[in-house]
Amino acid sequence: xxxxxxxxxxxxxxxxxxxxxxxxxxxxxxxxxxxxxxxxxxxxxxxxxxxxxxxxxxxxxxxxxxxxxxxxxxxxxxxxxxxxxxxxxxxxxxxxxxxxxxxxxxxxxxxxxxxxxxxxxxxxxxxxxxxxxxxxxxxxxxxxxxxxxxxxxxxxxxxxxxxxxxxxxxxxxxxxxxxxxxxxxxxxxxxxxxxxxxxxxxxxx
Length: 205
Known about the structure:
This protein has 205 residues and is α+β, with helices and mostly antiparallel strands. It has helices at residues 36-49, 82-90, 148-161, 172-186; strands at 14-15, 54-56, 66-70, 92-104, 108-114, 117-126, 129-135, 141-147, 196-197. The strands form 3 sheets. A 5-stranded antiparallel β-sheet has the order 2-3-4-7-8, sandwiched between helices. The N and C termini lie far apart (50 Å). Keywords: Hydrolase, Iron, Metal-binding, Protein biosynthesis.
């Protein structure tokens, strides 16, 4: 009998603020994209290892239109109704070649953070309801409407494949106040408990 070797799942380094890949518009991919299933598995493993609720391909150095979302950690907060907790706990999606076609409602603020920008959190205003077209991991087309916190997480990750960071949405004053932190992150002058790749970190001799 032929022995079957299982592909080893890897935790990938997350790209830090300042890397040019985070500002690139992601490109659509086909189902023939190399090792796509393995890549998606690795992204989930990487996201879970960093205690995140979303991760986009640019954050692991790939300028393609792929991101994942798993809102189950939010379900542990007691601020939600039982119905909301159930929805958050069960929501887990892979989005390929996504396109937000509609955003609706009055903008609301929520304190956002990002695995590529550790220890920086700021209020970001977004519309509460979105309609999004995407391909799932089986390359089947989906069109869905989301609202509330799930929509918020999707919008954040969707921005990544558009080359946009949540810090780009801040006021001039807020950007000025966090400029020093962002510079330190790009230089690797920060302590995190997950693997990161820093663009401007000086190499040790």
